Amino acid sequence: MSTDTSQPDTALRGLVDHLVGEGAIRTPAIEAAFRAVPRHRFLPGTPIADAYADRIVVTKRGSDGAPLSSASQPTIVARMLEQAQPQPGWRVLEIGAGTGYNAALLRELVGGAGQVTTIDVYDDVVAAARRNLTSTGYDDVLVLAGDGALGAPDRAPFDLIIVTAGAWDIPAAWWTQLAPTGRVVAPLRWRGLTRSLALDHQPAQPGRAASLTSRSMHLCGFIAMTGSSDGERTVALADDVTLFADQDQSIGEELRGVLDAPRTEAWSSVIIGGDQSMEGIWLRMSTAEAGTCRIKAAPSAVQSGRATPATPVNPALAVDDSIAYLASRRVAAGVSRWKIGAIGHGPRGAELAERITEQTRLWAEDHDTQPTITLYPAGTPDEQMIDGLIIDKRDSRMVFTW
To answer: Quick one: which H or E segment has residue 304?
Structure first.
């Protein structure tokens, strides 16, 4: 995609044409909203070419340099709006105000009869979003400061709750503030992975509790929500290798030092190209193996050979005092083709590595099938839910069916 670095109108047309050509925008109303909202006005001080490039623009960092707020990649923004399909007259709550750009798009889509409320935890982000929205004519969007997990009860009920930060759960407040036929679109995290889910509210039926059921799912990555909703915890395997596990998993400190145990390897017959994603393996693992989690190895760990996962953000499988993680090796020198396998450590490391390669083989047989995800409020009895693998979170219960 090329953009004119000096003419915003030309750059805007170039970005939208790119999003349409790539299939990220499919709906005429969403295309019209993108053409109407000038992204560069929400990124003051950013060069025009950068404002209209199809990539994230970080707008706030912490003292350690970690990103805290951003303007999301336009492709991701478009795909989530396509998942949401906001309609004229809808009442919308956005979690994560960012620059205000997404709220402006939402305002275009719901029109004057609709209502857009956006909330952010950072006061300076809220102030900037208000300025940007006011200066571009969207001063009827309400921008609130607060914990997005608590929602905005005074503005409820909402036809749509759309989340522009990584969410670990569907907090109780969102359940109560969603209209009976409402929709949630959120980048939801479980077992260390993230997917943007469009979830439709299903009313209770005889023998079945009210639920949120997935209608679409997309791979994505977002800055995690800051506030009261997170339920992910860390386990240090070594000074430079960390596991990320969910609160319901019995993964603990007994794994400290497990990487010092001899390693075992298991290799599948699956070979992929260098540009092919392995995220589908992780998705399958998360619905088949209760010990699925995320491993992060610092460059020092990779260089020393202590831990050599296939990707920087990589699935692992931990059970008791043993672990295995997804790995890859080049088929031949200079060839961008990789064999997929797993590396294990600990008494059950070899077994766990084989279990990962089994999920790899299943993924290779069917790349495209995705599970249906149904969420119920926490405390819902098993007999009032559909049958499937259950992951319990703080405020909801996730059920996966293939």
So the answer is: helix 299-304
